Amino acid sequence: MHGRFKRAIIIIIDALKYEFIDYNVSLQSMINEKIPPYKNKLTTLNHLRKQKPMHTRQYKFIADPPTTTMQRLKGLTTGSLPTFVDAGANFQSYEIMEDSFIDHLIKQKKKIKFFGDDTWLSLFPKRFYKSFEFPSFNVKDLHSLDNEILKHIYSELQVSDWDVIIAHFIGVDHCGHIYGPNHPAMREKLTQMDSVIRNVTNIMRDDTILFIMGDHGMTKTGDHGGDSADEIEAGLFIYSPAQIASRKQDETEDSIVMQMDFVPTLSLLLGLPIPFSNLGMVIPELFSYCPWWNTASNELRQVYHKIKALRLNAHQINLYLTTYQQIASDLPASKLRTLQQQVTRAESEVQGLITTMISQGPTNDALQKLQSLEKLYKKYIREAREMCENVWAKFDLKMIVAGILTVVLGAVQGLYFLVVWNNDEERLPASAKFLLAGSLLHMLYLVVHISLFSDAVPLMAYTLAVVLMLLNVAVMKDNLIKTGSLAEFVTLENVASTVLLASYCCFYFSNSFIVFENAVSLFLVQTLVCIFSFRIVLKNFSGERKENVKTDFMRYSKKSKSNFELIQVIKHPTTLVLVSTLLCCIVLRITSNFFVCREEQGSCENPFLTFPLASMEGASKNQRYILSVFSLASLVYAFRHWLKYFGNLNGTSPAVVCLSFAPPVAGMFICFHWALQGLPEFASESFSAWQLALMAQAVYIILIASMLTLMLFPLLVYMLPAKLGSTLRLPNQADFQQIIPTLYNQLKVRLTESQGGDEEKPPVVYGLGSAYSASVVAMLSIVSLLLALLLNDGIAPSLLLASIALYLCLELYSSATASEELRKGAHIASPCWAGMILLSLLSTLFFYGTGHQATIPSIRFEAAYTGFYGDFNNFILPGFLIWLNTFAGPIFFNLASPLLVFWPLLSSALVGMMVRKTPEQAQRKATWQGDFKLFNNGIHLRKSMFKLCCGIIVIASLKFLSAATAAALHRRHLMVWKIFAPRMVYEGAMFLTVSVCAFMAFLFVLRVDNVLSKFVKNIATKKGN
Amino acid sequence: MNERIQTNMHSFKVSRFILILSFSSLVSSALFGVLTIILLNDGPLSIIKNSVAGMKICMVAALVHCLLTFLISFLYGSESSEKYPFKPKITSVVKSLFILILGCIIFYIICICYGAPLLSSTTETFHFSMLLTVLICLPNCIFCGSNLDNWFTMFTSSSANGVETVVYFTSLCSLLGAWLGAVPIPLDWDRPWQEWPISCVIGALSGYCLGLLMAAVKLPWNLRNANKSKYF
Q: In chain A, what residues touch B186 (CB-CB under 8 Å)?
């Protein structure tokens, strides 16, 4: 087909929603301030439409989800359908290998000039005659990219050495991400775009056509990625100084075109072949006018001209489908045949019509026939596209089954370790090795199978998984019956928490529960906390019944002095339990202030804490900043106070020095960083990029250095120098009870053994009673600061809430389980199943509580820019930072997981007050050993840590299993791509995160244990000398 | 011989009391079931149209049931409940009132914590917490006295037979019912009863009803077991 235009200008304004270009006349009378900032700003378009209706066209430009820029660019250049998984590759833009109109332009020796977003360059490397590309990843940068384009574009436009100009402006999208559409910055940005359009249209010549389009829309909060109407409705505006259509556009109804329709339209308008894999349909209206054909004279010509374009389009699609079927053969054959018949029939009709028209001239019914042909072609193209959409949303059932079986196998295997290794054996049972080897074989086989013959059904993997599962279950059952550990397991909190976990897993099968999962997880966590406290209360009273004497005494005192009753009630341990439970519940409830909305939640407004500080104004900005600073300071202080309380901040070992100074300094730098980020735009412009990032970089350096120090010297204990001889000259902080000097009989024995009954006193070591937990807490304090930095000022207070909740939950958990252990007389504290579930629920709650949702658009990409600026060469670092931001809650709680083992041994003040003591227990208090008790039983320590790790992974994999099964079951559900699939992806990522964190915590504890044993040995030898 | 007759008389009285209590629990369980159905249906008492009025009706019903049970235990069971002697003292009444108010406040806080809206529909939340107080704390106050220790002791020991069994089952079941009542709230069925706190009220009420039913079954069962152990 002949090219109607010689040259084309394509201006892509990222996130240009249809609402932005649609001029609303009814708003004209309103005062300027009252009009929404994004409305009626592109006045040039309206002006052109009024003045030259035959030269302009305006469409709703429907994008295919996912509405992320790279996917859209792919659709806009190749005309093909996008895929879901492509969305993940948005960071790592890959070159487009499919046929695109860019490639056809190059083949025709046309010259393309490109301005703007460098995503294009990675999609089409080395295609452009001249390019001015700029990195687009820095969301906070509203202007520099657009201004760079404007610096060059006008001069380059006027030099006529080009055929196609592509300009991609990014400012509107960034403005949406940072401030949302309802912000004065948007008005400014759109006005700037308007001036660009005005200038470009003034320069344009007659042989040029201009496309102004958005690649996607934006939601009311300015985000995109999903498939809501707000996100997919972009705007398209077409203009040329020459006439482009033979009739005015119908003003009354919205004209809608698909985004892939742009590809064939542009190709045919420029006289290029349509890209091979295109599935779009030409916009017929644009082919209704042709000056050389004199289409204006008669309607017949107009329709025929349209049909020519449609015919080429249909043949291209037909060729594509036929070729595709030969290679992949997954299109339904019957449907394809009917489609092919449609093309053949239309073709023969066209030929027949032309023949009769040439021989007999136009007959009366020619127009009618042509119009029906036009409909036929349109129908064909539409149906072909629908067929492809249906077919390509295809599910590989055999792989789904294999995947689910693998997850089940993993969960069962973890459960096996949890159950079978319950006795006091030091080594793993022989069956474990066999089962582990079987699982490894299964994984290996799956990998080989997928890489070699991915089409066949992995039958061997199925059988292997099922057999291993059955074996696991058989061994577990055997073991449970033999040891009777099942009866031990059945306690109130274990049963209740298992029921809660099971119901949580069931909730993944319902879309409404996934949509409101934040509220659901809050509800379940509260329930579990209440169950724990109920358990403590029950325990207190069942203990009371045993000590009848005491009760009688109490009754007696009550009768004699009723005034004291109130005091007694207040002093009663149960009151404290209730108060701390209520406090814990309230803290968890406050977390809901950090929940962000997802689109399906309906009437929901994002809390003001989730907006960036820069977008706020006036007093509220200061208040929020002060709130953030205050909560960060409290966070630092809380950890510090805890460490001090247990005497772990004495001495001058590198770790202690580092922990005394690094957190406050880092916290201060974080506050400065937030202050810089909160500066209004005009003020932050006076800083250069590196200055803005400096503070965050300082924080990174401090935190990484202290993390390394802590890994090298993980011990936070201080041995009083032996020279002092007595405890009279203690360090300053030591004069309180705060510091618990711990004496060890064991050490004493060792010393006396080596020294033969020397009169020297046993060494005094500070903080040895909390040696393990102090190291974990110290690590946690440093990680929490890192997370606070990445979460940004608004969300960071939720980390303080997380710490308080963790503390209170651990106290309640310890009170519920600790005294139980003591009563049994066992020194063994194996981690409790209910505690692991509590931890898992807390981490899910705080995933939502740190301002996230299980949807693709709610990923906070801006986290990658804390402390970094400009463009990234690789995507590991930004990916890591975004991961830290997204899973801040789970990371925090799972790194704290070893505390589930250590905390009950610490018997901190609150636990002591909450649980009614028996005299026996009071006696134990005198020889308090804290978690150092575990040191004496190294194998037990490793075993319980290993079991803890296993338990956490089992719980996470059970949740992942149910999310995956739900997604597989609902694969034809209307909401699968919006709700179930993202949930599964998030749950998978959560599973990985949780496993990695639990494992790291495990390794860290082993490291502490290692160093601690060296330390103790050192004491012994020192004394020996 | 005389003693034998006396013990027989005593055990007869206990059995009579237990059986009457069980029967009354059965009847009131049925009545509560009917009330739940009436509340759910369209009509002048529909809880869907006016949740506050519905909750008031529930409270009155629970109050009436409490008084009825109290009357029964007063008429027939004065001897059996010697464990917790009933002594109407001003201080204990005041204390009970204080406990009720405190219970209401705590229930209110817990409702909010579990996710009830903080600023909107406060009247409903408050009425719901009052309802929970009436269903759970009030029977405890009346039958276990104002001493909180007795309450928890009752929960830890399952041996008690008599009014305590009824209170034990009703309070546990209505708490559980109220908890379960929150489950359908997030579902997208668009039913009017999914509105907070209607489903929870219905849950608590049916829990109470179920608790009464369980107590009605459990009371004679316990009695039989107790008699067995006495004679064999």
A: 512-513, 515-516, 519-520
| Residue-averaged pLDDT of chain A | 82
Round to whole Å and give the CA distance between B133 and B59.
9
Mean pLDDT over A279-306 rounds to: 81
Q: Nearest 5°: phi and psi at A234?
A: -90, 175
Number of Cβ within 10 Å of residue A686's Cβ equals: 8
Three-state DSSP state, A688: coil
Residue A258 has pLDDT above 60, yes or no: yes
Domain residue spans of chain A: 7-273, 290-394, 397-488, 491-721+763-1024, 722-762
Question: Greater confidence, B160 or B110?
Answer: B110
DSSP tally for chain A: helices H, then strands E: 38, 11
Q: Give which of B114, B129, B144, B183 to mutate to test A binding, by max A Cβ within 10 Å.
A: B114
- A516 in B contact zone (CB under 8 Å): yes
Q: Provide the edge-to-edge strand list for the sheet that holds A765-766.
A: A718-719, A765-766, A741-742
Q: Write out pLDDT tens, residues A424-464.
A: 666 677 778 888 888 899 889 888 888 887 677 788 888 88
Domain A7-273 in CATH 3.40.720.10: yes
Closest residue on chain B to A504 (Cα): B183
Q: Which residues from chain A sit within 8 angstroms of residue B203, using beta carbons?
A: none
| Chain B touched by A615 (CB under 8 Å) | no
The domain A290-394 having CATH identifier 3.40.1570: the answer here is: no
Q: Which of A512, A523, A541 sits opposite B152 (nearest CB)?
A: A541
Dump pLDDT digits (tens) for A861-873: 888 888 887 777 7
Q: Are strands A256-258 and A112-117 parallel, antiparallel or unpaired?
A: unpaired
- Per-residue CA distances from A658 to A666, A787, A814 (Å): 11, 19, 30
CB A855 within 8 A of CB A847: no
Q: Cα–Cα distances in Å, from A620 out to A607, A615, A970?
A: 13, 11, 45
Measured CA distances, B140 to A545, B96, B156 (Å): 19, 10, 14
Sequence-separated (6 or more) residues with CB below 8 Å from residue A927 = A745
Which residues in chain A are contacts of B152 at CB distance < 8 A?
Answer: 537-538, 540-541, 574
User: Is A582 in contact with B182 (Cβ distance < 8 A)?
Assistant: no
CA A844, CA B230: separation in Å to the nearest integer? 54
Question: pTM (2 decimals)?
Answer: 0.76
Mean local confidence (pLDDT), B28-44: 90
- Sole residue written with tokens 């309906």: A602
Interface of B with A (CB under 8 A): 91, 106, 109-110, 112-115, 148-149, 152-153, 155-157, 179, 182, 186-188
| Single-letter code of the amino acid located at A877 | L
Contact flag B115-A522 (C-beta cutoff 8 Å): yes
Residue A827, Cβ neighbours under 10 Å: how many? Answer: 14
Contacts of A801 in chain B (CB under 8 A): none
The three-point CA angle A635-A598-A393 to 5° equals 125
Contact (Cβ atoms closer than 8 angstroms) between residue B152 and residue A573: no
Under a CB-based contact definition with an 8 Å cutoff, are residues B173 and B207 in contact?
yes
Quick check: B153 and A544 CB within 8 A? Answer: yes
Buried b (16+ CB within 10 A) or exposed e, A378-409: bebbeebbebbeeeeeeeeebbbbbbbbbbbb
Contact of A595 with chain B, judged by CB distance below 8 Å, is answered with no
Q: Which helix (H) or strand (E) holds A718?
A: strand A718-719
What ipTM goes with this model? 0.92
Phi/psi of residue A235, nearest 5 degrees: -110, 150
Query: Which residues, at least 6 apart from A295, have a Cβ–Cβ distance to it below 8 Å?
Result: A246, A288, A289, A301, A302, A305
Of A512, A538, A569, the CB nearest to B188: A512
